[in-house]
Design brief:
Layout (H helix, E strand, L loop, with lengths): L1 E2 L1 H25 L21 H26 L3 E2 L12 E2 L33 H28 L3 H4 L6 H13 L15 H21 L5 H6 L10 H28 L2 H10 L7 H26 L1 H21 L26 H8 L7 E5 L5 E3 L1 H7 L2 E8 L5 E10 H8 L7 E9 L5 E7 H4 L4 E7 L2 E2 L9 E4 L11 E7 L12 H5 L9
Parallel strand pairs: 4-13
Antiparallel strand pairs: 1-3, 2-3, 4-5, 6-7, 7-10, 8-9, 8-13, 10-11, 10-12
Helix pairs in contact: 1-5, 2-3, 2-9, 2-10, 3-11, 5-6, 6-8, 9-10, 10-11
Bound molecules: the ligand Nc1nc2c(c(=O)[nH]1)N[C@H]1C(S)=C(S)[C@@H](COP(=O)(O)O)O[C@H]1N2 and molybdenum atom.
The ligand Nc1nc2c(c(=O)[nH]1)N[C@H]1C(S)=C(S)[C@@H](COP(=O)(O)O)O[C@H]1N2 binds next to strand 8.
């Protein structure tokens, strides 16, 4: 792991200053007096922990664990965090790989993935981002749903009074408690069955009302469909990579809280605390501890089950995600014609690459001849099948756009693309009424051999920013980035954008192509077919 000095200081210094200030205050003035317990009104103030609260607390714990573990796995697919949108190697503020990216040979973003032990990552090992994303998105539906119910019930009952401070006095009060903890003077426990101490209240408030919303809000800043529709959104944190970095830091916040929270539960009266958390009583019996251990076993079991399903039933998980995450999270984004463009000055100096450069004789011969003999074959369910040379395409029409590429792995980069709108091609070939999707076949092979391909529903193929690009950054498309022709679909993730295109087929349904999942990565790596987030 390597972190640059400035971000390290920015992260560590505030905490170090707080602890140093606490020590100084103790050394100079002694421990501050602790705030008195607030007056308790049995008719209006909360007493104990109702069942809904305990259930929500457990459900939250379960899905938070799944989210953190699958999130770390997603990070392992591109173990670098940047402050700039360009992702130039060497510019990362934090990285979890010792590799310095070589510039003298092809080194793809996929080469850069790191192994993550299944004890930490879900589903673990190397380049398992397809499955990790399914678990991440499935978990987030339940985590957010549960959180919404929890917050609604907090305010529907008097339980909100535990968490929400009603006076600024909370700040000096929490500071007094902090000076005690930081200097290892445990303050007397409050009657937590009725109220928390000031620091505890402020911390829980921060986790529920700041950290959790930040986790939810930073997520969509990484979605190509969302950010091409709302191009202002990723500018809120600064840019997409800052959004991604914040998403990671929020996760770190949750981990730090989890460790501190569990430690405090253990230190400040384990049996009583566990009875509060698990069965809602205020006694000293060990039953809460036992049932709590059962709860931890259930969470562990869920992790084992998710791991097993990812490795033994990946197709099933992929299909469940398609049936649930698809309609709930993707459909609202799919429907919109959106465009997000960047200025010429913002073009990235470096663009990561993925995929295997074609090795077939046919492609090599074309390449050696500068693709003069290249003919794009467009066939299938069309009235007017065509074969187009690059010149034919140039004559038909040319559209240019400066857009942001979002790879599923997390890296991004801005480039100019010039080429033929797929919508124009559709107009030319006249799809038959049965045609529902377009399949793009590559000269290149996929990671496990066999031709690389992917598909688009006809609706998205008609999007104004869906392009067959033969130009990148004002020059003919180079070998590494897909010469002679590649797809650009700006509201989708990079893996949909087939490079080195050989032919295009109009089909009724992608189920008949390859293994029927819609593309090579969908077939082989269980990626979701709709790639708007
Ligand atoms: N033929 C082919 N096209 C492909 C791939 C591939 O493996 N083979 N990888 C895809 C992925 S995962 C990404 S992120 C983009 C990368 O485009 P770039 O290399 O131009 O940055 O290409 C896509 N097109
Ligand atoms: Mo990608």
């Amino acid at each position: 792991m390597r972190i640059k000095r400035v971000p390290l200081l920015l992260l560590v210094l505030p905490f170090a200053i707080l602890v140093a200030a606490a020590y100084l205050q103790w050394a100079l003035f002694g421990l501050p007096p602790l705030p008195p317990a607030p007056p308790y009104n049995p008719t209006t103030d909360p007493s104990g922990f109702p069942a809904w609260l305990r259930v929500a607390h457990f459900v939250n714990f379960l899905f938070l664990v799944l989210l953190i573990r699958s999130g770390l796995q997603i990070l392992a697919d591109h173990p670098r965090l940047y402050s700039k949108i360009h992702c130039t190697p060497g510019s990362e503020w934090l990285r979890f790989t010792p590799v310095e990216v070589p510039r003298d040979r092809i080194y793809t973003a996929k080469d850069d993935c790191v192994y993550l032990t299944p004890w930490i990552g879900l589903p673990g090992r190397r380049h398992t981002i397809g499955m990790a994303r399914h678990w991440h998105f499935l978990s987030v539906l339940f985590w957010v749903g549960n959180g919404a119910i929890f917050v609604a019930l907090l305010f529907a009952t008097n339980q909100w009074k535990r968490l929400v401070p009603t006076s600024l006095q909370i700040v000096p009060d929490a500071w007094a408690v902090f000076v005690h903890y930081a200097t290892f003077h445990l303050p007397p426990e409050p009657e937590t069955y009725y109220h928390y101490n000031a620091l505890q209240q402020l911390t829980y408030f921060g986790v529920v009302f700041i950290l959790a919303p930040l986790a939810i809000l930073t997520g969509p800043s990484m979605s190509p469909a969302f950010t091409s529709r709302f191009s202002w959104y990723p500018k809120l944190p600064g840019n997409r990579q800052i959004g991604r970095s914040l998403h990671f830091l929020v996760m770190c916040g949750f981990v730090v809280f989890l460790i501190g929270h569990v430690a405090m539960v253990a230190i400040t009266g384990l049996a009583r605390n566990m009875n509060h958390i698990v069965i809602g009583t205020n006694g000293m019996s060990p039953i809460g501890i036992y049932l709590g251990l059962v709860g931890i076993a259930v969470v562990t079991g869920a992790c084992v089950l998710a791991y097993w399903a990812a490795w033994h039933k990946p197709r099933l998980v992929q299909h469940i995600a398609k049936a649930t995450v698809g309609p709930l999270m993707m459909s609202p984004l799919d429907r919109h014609e959106s465009r997000s463009e960047f200025s010429r000055e913002s073009i990235s100096p470096y663009m990561w690459a993925n995929g295997k450069v074609p090795t077939s004789d046919a492609w090599r011969a074309l390449s050696e001849n500068g693709f003069k003999d290249y003919r794009l074959r467009v066939f299938g369910l069309v009235e007017n099948p065509v074969e187009l040379s690059l010149d034919d395409m140039r004559e038909l029409d040319k559209t240019t756009q400066i857009t942001l590429h979002h790879c599923i792995q997390g890296w991004s980069g801005i480039a100019e693309w010039g080429g033929l709108q797929v919508a124009r091609l559709v107009q030319l070939v006249q799809p038959k009424a049965e045609a529902g999707a377009i399949v793009f076949y590559s000269f290149g092979e996929g990671g496990e051999g066999g031709p690389f391909y992917d598909s688009l529903p006809l609706s998205n193929a008609k999007h104004p920013q869906t392009l067959l690009a033969y130009e990148m950054n004002y020059e003919p498309l180079g070998t590494l980035h897909g010469a002679p022709l590649r797809l650009r679909v700006e509201n989708q993730l990079g893996f949909k954008m087939v490079k080195w295109i050989e032919a295009i087929e109009f089909v009724s349904d992608v189920g008949t192509v390859g293994e029927g999942e819609g593309g090579y990565n969908e077939d082989h790596e269980y990626f979701g077919e709709r790639a708007g987030i």
